[in-house]
Amino acid sequence: MRLALWWLGRAVSAAATLLGVSILIFAAVRMMPGGFAETILGPFATADQKAELADRYGLDQSVFVQYGHWLAAVARGDFGVSMISREPVVSELWARLPVTGQLTLFSVLIATLVGVPLGVLTAVRARRAAVGRLLSGLGVSVPEFVLGSLVVFLFSRYALGLPAGGYDNVRSLVLPSLVLSFFAISITARTTRDAVMGVLVEPYVTAAVARGESPWFIIRHHVLRNAAIPVVTLLATITAYLLGGALIVEYVFNLPGIGSYVVQAVGRRDYAVVQAGVLLAATVFIVLNLLVDLVVGLIDPRLGVTSKGRRA
Amino acid sequence: MKDWLTRAGMVCLGLIVLVALASVVNLAGDPDEIVGPRLAPPGPGYWLGTDNLGRSMLPRIMEGIATTLLLSSVAVLVTAALSAVLGIVAGYRGGVVNELIMRLVEVLYSFPAIVLAILVAAVFGPGQLAALASIVLVTIPLMTRLVRAAAVGVAQRDYVTAAIISGARLPRILGRHLLPNVAGTIAVQVTYALSVGIAVEGGLSFLGFGVQPPQASLGVLIQQGTTYMTAAPWMITGPGVVFVVAVLAINVVGDGLRDRFEPRQARSLV
């Protein structure tokens, strides 16, 4: 019962955040050069179109009413029309979703499958801490655009057997996913390492060592389960990183995904697309965090009984 | 600090700052001057080669370091000031104020860094201001949260209660009693925020929405480098290596600071 209440609280909180996000984006669109009508319709709109838009969004009314109209339209999935293609923004984004979705999904998988074992390993072998720190630090410090450009260069110049640029099929996503996950692997490894190190100094691990249990038994039975929560929480954060990174990786590899589309849109001042893309990214992040909260609530029974909600 | 990694990071960081200072007085030459043929490999007169316009890469990289470092540092200082105020007030006052500030922070936290930066660039138009504002908005959430968490702990200490009882006013309590005790947290986070700032500047300028050519920044140089990667690999090597070393050095120093201010125990199982 308490757990259900806690979940409800999280959901309400997520909804409030989403509302804040929408206000921020609405304000940003208002502040963009050229005004709202130009932003949505483009510079070549006719007076009729502007009148129709003014009527639909209530542009002659107070800013609060305007926000209400805008929010209602967004909630219906109406993000306006791309000023370049003249197609509804939603269908433009929908067509590009598979590429971005697959790219992000593959990268999350790679990051988890490589990063978690790596983190456990570097935590357990604390004597080599400096090496682990250097390696994971390197992963965080090499930006996607440098690594991506390097990979594109190598694979396009020396014909190494994998497509580096453009999109034909899933094979085209192998290199971009690897590049994108490079960063995520080090973050995952780092967080796992910190979590595992935190558990390793717990008294019950000392007790297990004293009982003569083997290191890997201790890791499997005592450490991993207790270190799981920060790692699961991390997955949501990682996905946000990856959504941002996907934007640059898609741009570098010339993939027809949402990210590269939004980058193009900023350059072309196609603000309806920018607005929708940014809102989509923030929404995905918030929803994922909410889902992770639900999962964490299931893993960690302590959460249901504290009154403060999330542990510090 | 005993560990060699942190010390090495500090040395690297010191060198980078020195190079940035040297570029202010054009120690290695004018970054905008055309000194040789286009896309020339490293040679006398242009030790790191020339770019697509025949400008020497060495002074350009130095200018790039200075631009990126200055931009990120200013932005991070703004973040530190804002986060200190927001975090301390939220942590000390609690209640509605805390709820409002944390909600605002949560909203900013919901955007992936580069996505938020792109939104900012769309509002302000591409340029240094967009890069600066992006770095501030991207780094504020985490720092404010951590400062608040630290401030909540400090606010319940006896000396704060004593200060309240002795009639100290709010600014004095926040400035004299809370701020010094969350300064360690701020110092650690400033270091990390600096590396985030460099990454955001790099990413935004790489996409063409940050620092605008002909001014050099690390992001601008890397972007130009990728265009001519086949013909002139030296155009990307220098800026790329400097970028990675800078971010790595800052992160390593940040880790060192964190271990010092928030020491953790470690156990070796194997």
Show the helix and strand layout.
The complex is a heterodimer of chains A (312) and B (270).
Chain A: H1 2-31, H2 35-41, H3 47-57, H4 63-75, H5 89-124, H6 129-141, H7 144-157, H8 174-200, H9 203-210, H10 215-253, H11 258-267, H12 271-299
Helix pairs in contact in A: 1-12, 5-8, 5-10, 6-8, 7-8, 7-10, 8-10, 9-10, 10-11, 10-12, 11-12
Chain B: H1 4-24, H2 57-93, H3 95-109, H4 113-124, H5 128-155, H6 158-165, H7 170-206, H8 218-227, H9 234-261
**Count of DSSP strands of chain B:** 0
Fourth-level CATH superfamily of chain B: MetI-like
Mean pLDDT of chain B: 89
* Apparent shape of chain B: elongated
Biggest sheet of chain A, in brief? none
H and E string of chain B: HHHHHHHHH
Uncertain stretches of chain B? none
Count, helices of chain B:
9
Percent helix range of chain B: over 70%
Strand proportion of chain A, as a percent range, falls in: under 5%
Biggest interface, which chains?
A-B, 65 and 54 residues
Please state the second-level CATH architecture of chain B.
Answer: Orthogonal Bundle
InterPro entries (chain B): BP-dependent_transpt_permease, MetI-like, MetI-like_sf
Subcellular location (chain B): Cell membrane
Family (chain B): Belongs to the binding-protein-dependent transport system permease family.
Keywords (chain B): Cell membrane, Membrane, Transmembrane, Transmembrane helix, Transport
How would you characterize the overall build of this protein?
Chain B: It is found in: Cell membrane. Chain B: Keywords: Cell membrane, Membrane, Transmembrane, Transmembrane helix, Transport. Chain B: This is ABC transporter permease. The complex is a heterodimer of chains A (312) and B (270). With 312 residues, chain A is mainly α. Chain A has a domain at 96-300: MetI-like (MetI-like fold). In chain A, 76% of the residues lie in helices and 0% in strands. Chain A contains twelve helices and no strands. Chain A has helices at residues 2-31, 35-41, 47-57, 63-75, 89-124, 129-141, 144-157, 174-200, 203-210, 215-253, 258-267, 271-299. The model of chain A is unreliable at 304-312 (pLDDT under 50). By secondary structure, chain B is an all-alpha fold. Chain B has one domain: Orthogonal Bundle (MetI-like fold). Chain B has helices at 4-24, 57-93, 95-109, 113-124, 128-155, 158-165, 170-206, 218-227, 234-261. In chain B, α2 (57-93) runs antiparallel to α3, α4 crosses α5 and α7 packs antiparallel against α9 (234-261). The mean pLDDT of chain B is 89. The interface between A and B is large, with 65 and 54 residues.
